[in-house]
Amino acid sequence: MTIGTSACNDIRIARTLAQRGAPGSFAYVALVSLVTMLTSLASQAPLGVGVLIAVLLLTGIFRKRLSKRVDIDYPKSPKRWAVSFLISTLLFSIAWVCFVYLVIINFGLGWELTLTTIVTTGLASGAISALSADYRTAIPFLLIMVGGTGLVVGLSGGPQSLQISLMLTVYLIYCVAQAKIQNRLYLQEAEKANLLEQQGHALAVASRKAEVANEAKSLFLANMSHEIRTPINGILGMTDLALATELNDEQREYLQLARFSGGNLLVLINDILDFSRIEAGRMVLDPIDTDLTRLVGETIDSLVMGNIKVMVPVKWDVSDSLPRHLLVDGTRLTQVINNLVGNAIKFTTDGQIQVLLTGKELANDAWEIKGRVIDTGIGIPEDKLGTIFGTFAQADNSFVRRYGGTGLGLAISRSLLRMMGGGLWVESVEGEGSVFHFSFSTVKVESSVPDLPQTNDDSHLAFTGGAMKVLVVEDNLVNRRYVQLLLEKKGHLVSLAENGRLGVEAVKKQPFDLVLMDVQMPEMDGL
User: Fold this and answer.
1) Sheet with 433-443: strands ordered across
2) 166-180, 438-452, 483-497: least confidently modelled range
3) Whole-number CA gyration radius for the chain
4) In sequence order, which residues have a C-beta less than 8 Å from that of residue 12 and are 6 or more positions away?
5) Tens of pLDDT along 237-267?
6) pLDDT tens-digit map of 423-439
7) H-helix or E-strand containing 354?
């Protein structure tokens, strides 16, 4: 028996045969029993009826098992399963023809035969639908079921038997034609279903490849973070050293422009790399004991002091009800505030900017911190509010040309705040200003470090003792030279090592007051 028109259809057609054939597995036993009860056949031919019912029952059990195990047995041996299904189907038709023969020899052409013939046509009609998936199974079944019945009736003798036989022959022709039509329609639908499955599979494969490529891109950028930032920091550092030397006005202007451009480039690179790390799942928070008031104050000061782009007052307030010490990733929270306040400064030329933080105490020293960055700037059109948190998105493309930026700041901020158990959302009226709301979860901690006084003076960071012996372990030549010059200008004695292994050897040879190490280095890293 051949199932289907192509290999991809085989399992589908086998399943269809099994699904449609399973309900009829015991129909023949039931119909034989019903006709027997409606007639006196049980008393006329008890042995014959008993044998037929036994054969039909065993065949039904066999067919039921085939149908239930199609997904297990068919893949192992398609031909064996198909032949077994065909044999069980033909056994049903042969047993039924034998039953018709029993009715004829016991009752002749009476009403018992009429009843049996009606049941025969009903079984044939049902088989057209049940076996339409494979006409090479349907045709032999119909030939035996209808043709065999017609032959048995015709051979019984008499003009009436010939009339019934002729009617069954015409009905057989109709059934065969319908079986072929139903089979053709089924195969057309199966081919369409296969095509859809293939297209779906192709789309799934393409989607997975795109995901893998995107993951590889994100992972690459995340891994390149150190390598990309290192030369930029070297350029900025050496530019700062050059600016600290005696220069004429023209040279100073050129270096200041280079320093400004380099700073902008570093901001852009940081945004892209941070976003890539978040996408790659490599961004890890490092919550430590943080003075929230001090953090906000220093962040605002760093944005405002000496920034000629600040056109309006920037005010901030952290509620006195908040604990002084909270467990927060200060670096990432600073990044969020930088992004939000930086945007407010960028788009506000009149009025003022406010940064307000409040909080609500939860159970077990847990706190929910809520913040607002309020500006009186250009605002955001209502139809753009849903897009500004998208990646590489800004409210208006013209902003890129006028104000610069990657359009990643808000997307990064929202992702970081979600990692902190909070969120970021906005309210805005075009022409009137915006309010960016943010929140995050934290825990109150008892600090063992004394609070430092709030001051904008960083003199407390300066080393007040004499010259130190410092070992700088750094594989990048420019950065190594920059740190060396910076420290030597402060009067310190500097030794250099190109990697972690040489750094360890240097420490073994002589004592140092301080060792400054890079993290990622060849041969042996800083860790």
Assistant:
1) 314-318, 353-361, 366-375, 433-443, 423-429
2) 438-452
3) 43
4) 4, 190, 193, 194
5) 889 889 888 999 899 899 988 888 888 788 7
6) 999 999 998 999 999 99
7) strand 353-361
Closest CA to 56 of 46, 48, 68, 44: 48
**Pairing mode, if any, of strands 314-318 and 353-361?**
parallel
For tokens 């200060």, what's the residue?
330
Could you give phi then psi for residue 340, rounded to 5 degrees?
-70, -45
Count other Cβ atoms within 10 Å, centred on residue 285.
12
Bridge partners for 316 per DSSP = 355
Of 73, 33, 38, 61, residue with least CA distance to 49: 33
> Residue 151: in which H helix or E strand, if any?
helix 148-154
Exposure string of 240-254, with b = 16+ CB inside 10 Å and e = fewer, is eeeeeeeeeeeeeee
Q: How far apart are CA 525 and CA 500, in angstroms?
A: 5
Structure tokens at 104: 């004829």
Residue positions counted in the chain? 527
Q: To which residue do tokens 């009436």 refer?
A: 160
Rounded Cα distance between 269 and 408, Å, is 11
